Amino acid sequence: MWNCLNAVDAVLVPTPVWQCDMLWLALRFSHLALERLATSMQAAAVPLVIREQHANRQQVFDASPVARQLGIRRGMSMKKAQLLVPDLTIVDRDMGQEAEGLEHLAHWAMQFTSQVVLQSPHGLLLEIGASRRLFGGVAALHQQVITSCARLGHSPRTAIAPNPQAAWWFSALPQSLVITQDKALYTALTVLPLGCLDLSDKQRQALRRMGLRHLGECLRLPRAGLRRRFGAEWLDRLDRALGHQPDPRSCFQPPRRFEARLELPAEVDNCTGLLFGLRRLLQELGGALLGADATIDQLTLTLEYVDIPPSAIVLQLLQPHRDPDYLLELWRDRLEREALQAPVLGLRLASVDFRLANHASLGLFGHAPGQLEEQTLWERLQARLGRDTVRRLGVLADHRPESAWGLGESAEGTPMGQRPLWLLDPPERLRQGPEGPWRDGPLRLEQGPERIESGWWQGRWVRRDYFIATDSHGARLWLFRQANERDWYLHGRFG
Amino acid sequence: MSETGTCTAVLVEVTPLPVEYAELHCLSNFSFLRGASHPEELVAQATGLGYRALALTDECSLAGVVRAHEEARAQELPLIIGSEFRLEEGDRLVLLATDRQAYAELSALITRARRAADKGQYRLAIDGLDNLPGCLVLLHPDNPQDQHRLTRYAECFGGRLWLEANRLLTGDEPHYLRSLRAAANHFGLPIVAAGDVHMHRRERQRLQDLVTAIRHRTTLARAGWALYPNAERHLRPLATLLQIYPREWLQQSCAIAERCCFSLDELRYEYPDELVPEGLSPAAHLRTLTEAGMQVRWPDGVSRKVRDQIEHELQLIGELNYEPYFLTVHDIVRFARERGILCQGRGSAANSAVCYALGITEVDPARLSTLFERFISKERNEPPDIDVDFEHQRREEVIQYIYEKYGRHRAALAATVITYRTRSALRETGKALGFDSDTLERLATTHSWWDGRRLNIQRIRELGFDPEQPQIRQLLGLTTQLIGFPRHLSQHVGGFVIAQKRLDWLVPIENAAMPERTVIQWDKDDLQALGLLKIDVLALGMLSAIRRSLALISDYRGEPFRLQDIPPEDPATYAMISKADTVGVFQIESRAQMTMLPRLRPACFYDLVIEVAIVRPGPIQGDMVHPYLRRRQGLEPVDYPSPAVRSVLERTLGVPLFQEQAIKLAMVAAGFSAGEADALRRAMAAWRRRGGIEVFQRKLFDGMRQRGYSEEFAGRIFDQIKGFSEYGFPESHAASFALLAYASAWLKCHHPAAFFCGLLNSQPMGFYAPAQLIQDARRRGVRVHPVDVRRSNWDSSLEPGRGARPELRLGLHLVNELSCNGAARLVEARQIKAFADITDLSRRARLNERDLQALAAADALAGLGGHRYQAQWQVLGVEEPTPLFAASTEERGVALPEPTLGEAVCADYDALGLSLRRHPLQLLRTRLRRAGVRTAAEVQAARDRTFLRSAGLVICRQRPHTASGVMFATLEDESGQINLVIWPKMLEHFRQVVLNARLLLVNGQVQREGQVVHLIAHKLEDRSNWLGELNISSRDFR
Q1: Which residues of B are less than 8 Å from A229 in CB distance?
Q2: How far away is chain A from the Cα of B109, in angstroms, using its nearest Cα?
Q3: ipTM surpassing 0.90, yes or no?
Q4: Which of B317, B355, B670, B975 could form a disulfide with B703 if both were Cys (CB 3.0 to 4.6 A apart)?
């Protein structure tokens, strides 16, 4: 039977978290997107905002300190922001980049503890109970984290508490709160403003309309009544923050690779046989990718031959993918032009690092069908012929002859007149004969003029009258004259 | 050249033989986003080039023909009316009207094609081309070799069909023309030359490319083949045409033009005639109705003077055959009256004695005595103008009545041509040129770089753009050209055209955006230019409010109380108005009006007419306000340069305040004829849009100099006329508005509870939000009760008070986020039985959580469930009744702490936008006192030039065009309002504070002029955070 070995880390398993003596450091990167920009731009001096689309309006997602000084606030409409600061610099929010940024930070945080929890979209929770001694105590560790953060250009709000939920809530406070004792925890929670909790707008409004402002006021209300009004999930989170219930979290794992080997049941000497085995490996890969919500963009297949050393084939994708069927199709094309040097005994499939799936780029209905087909054809051609061999030449929709073709997509429709196959670049200026243009003798104008006046918007304004002419050898030429000029130019030659 | 399609070769200089040509295929910018020239430009250019005639043939549209017609009349160029169509089959046709009958066919065809498609589109196929016996046809077949289809056209149009040949110097043209010739030979059809013109001059190519890109919603760089390859689609010189077309084809164009002798001047408006009973003439019927009306208006008999006036008016109406117009308006007003819909006519004819007798207006001509000019002028042959305002919430009933009575084939709304404004032109141009949206936003948000007629280069530099940079120059240049281009037709606010037979024989009708609405293709200027009559059926919020107030008064008085029962010339009302106590009063409630009232101190109806007209941008820009005030206060002598001028200006103390006076002045002082004065009036209305008033300037100056008036006087009059152009108020309109101003002021003075209740229920309207209206009501001693589910209806209502005075109960309509349906179920359930508690309410009224929360937040449940916090807790606990666990929903009570006063006020503002408890500033007063802040009342009492500090909620910010950058803000505290003036420099400096602050602290200087007090800001601070702190402040304030 088929025999699968060595599927390393193909599935992500939540690592169990120790329940005793834990201490959590929460880092809240409220200005994550802005701070990431600031490292790449001289953003400190200019009023800059990050813009987001909220329902039907564009609003300020975050504003740089200078912009804030000028009165711009989060959630303000872009219209008003621009009224306040006419020369505002605007950057659109990029959630993908923010997620990436948070992941980078998680990597960075691994130096302080092995247990880092992503609190998306802009928080990290570090379990420091286990590593505090290593760093010389809680205070020292806390300080080191903050200093290290600052070096990266980030200044998160921080808080320390015995459980991740409470630490996260405390980190919303403007000043850093450090609570290491369970006793202090309850008191601190009772005076915590409800605004620090991650509440939905509706819950927030309801609490405000009951005149409740601090968590302590909620805690005095009957549990059953609270559950009925705000749901069991909310009460559950409350219990975790209070330490009444365990709060297991799955830790951040650095991106995975996939490597698996398959021993073929018999020696295989044709492509079809290889694909049979490969299908199974790809299915496993697909599962792993799905579990990790990831995609890959490069795969290496190693063929293990009977007598000779193994050889590797690399498949590079244009866009990250994880669909096993699609990947199999690509491999089929790739393997069909591979001559097997000997019968194959085993297959090894390895990936480079997984990439987080980029959901943002997919529309509601995915790609339009036409687009997908073209893309597929494209990749197939490249798989078959090699990456750099395949280019596209197309007719461009432009009235100016020299701009009417290029490498790229072909436009629909064609120009209205006759066009020669060959164009001279640059056009050749002709001698002026006694009765018109001259090139090894007089040129006879046969058809025209075709007048082309276009391209004024790009500073390459073409204004010419084109004619088809024959020379003394009977060759058909394409000539033009510029508007308001007498000179003739040869622009092309008909086949 | 003789043979098109082969070689024209080098253009040889030839002595042109005399050639004649008429352009028969020409699109203006009324073929939206195709044509790149205004109709007037095309006509002028064609005239200049010596064309025999020009046909305006916009695509399935006659929207531009009236403008072209007017220009053609001025240029004396024969104009042909036609239209271009692209058929479903792909062929392109141009239809030209030969006579009145053919015009009707064409108009009806356009109507059919347009009505068969969505707004802005049309649909027409070969099969729809029957019934066009009068039109001449130019055919541009998609494929000239399709014999089958050509046969069909030849059958359809017989000897009225030409094949249209365009020589546009494109690459595929030789081939096409060869086929066209073959087809012409085969079918024996003549070929005619035509230019497929899209612009008047070659230079418009850029604009033509631009609108093409906009039409295709793309950039110029990506527009590709959608653009035309060259600029040949313009009106070309005859010499050029002779070189590229066979002479025979050119001659055909003139032959066709000869046959098209229709002119728009032939259109005659015919009134609907069904309003006249069988056997009676319209004149006799109008007389009967007028006599009957006189019985009602003057039950004690008609004075000699009134009788004479009515006789005179009837005679004039008869001479001009305007009886049907008056009868039509009367019928509409009669309908409204029967339905109890309040209405009021205005306009020059509306204030005639006949209209008063017919009930079209309530303005008694006797109240205006002889001050009015004759209501219609015979010499000027100006159609009578009656606009009728109806209650805004019930105008639709009137519109439906008109449609029903006359049918959709006879009645339709006039169009409003929506044109590119600065901002839209800039955005579209910029997008097509490939500018990024942020750059465009920067230019678009402040369009101070465009002053209405010219670019302001300085301002562009200030915005950080280099006007010399080619891209910017291109952007601004094209934007400037695009401004004023028509984009689409929209419906006029209420201008109806009603025809005797079929309206679509007069003008095409198309679908409007609103379902079941149709508009004609002409706007009100077009209608006026052709002498067609429209009746304006307009909506006015104040009429709704007045009707409601009258109903409330009738209710508690127990007898009907009508508009005409309001006593005239009531001194108490004028006293109130003179104190500027006019919040909520029609027209004179704005801040500008309020600062004027104590100076003008109106004491009679005509003073109110002046008051309404004087606080307008026109008189302000013409600098007429201060001279008038000084003269009225006796600070300046009233003199007139001549008795003639005196006769015109006496009633306004020598200062022209009304449009009529400006016109009349041009006649008596500068010798304008009646016709010229009429042209001046129309130029005045349009100059900002089209320019062209300058030609009158010379004539006016010359005329006045000849009659011995000083240059300075002439200059002043001209400036004043210009000032009137856009914003001037005709006296007749001012009088109608003044009547409503008086009526509403009287109601406010004598029945404040009913007045404010009517206003609240007609929101949104007017200048003030409910919070300000209610505060004003309380200041006038009206007791106001909060929203309460046990008593409130959807509308606010009156409850019997302790004394004779009714008291105001706020309605559920003020509760934010409460659904209308939920409220209706609530009221219904309450009528069956009073609510026992919140659970009872939610079950019987079937209210959802959102409605319940809204009621709790508004404290409307206080009577059932304790204070709002408690109510909110209970409301959230209410569950859908489930039969099984019905008992389990009972839970033990929870005692939430009561809100502090500060919290309650803030919550009131959140949920209702107002609070009956305290003004927020009253709660902050201790703190404000410590900060040295004076109240609004103290500011009002302060001496002129005092420096002081004050504060208030910002309730209004205004930056009028007339005030050159000054911002006016109104602040409010518990004692009243403060009028803040912020000079441009201050505004620049405190921009952020001014724009953001809800609570503003001001250091400033008092500027006092009699009772009018302004505070000139010197320093501004945003203290909005103090309001937030109210929310969490302790109970100290109680």
Answers
A1: 873, 876-877
A2: 33
A3: no
A4: B670
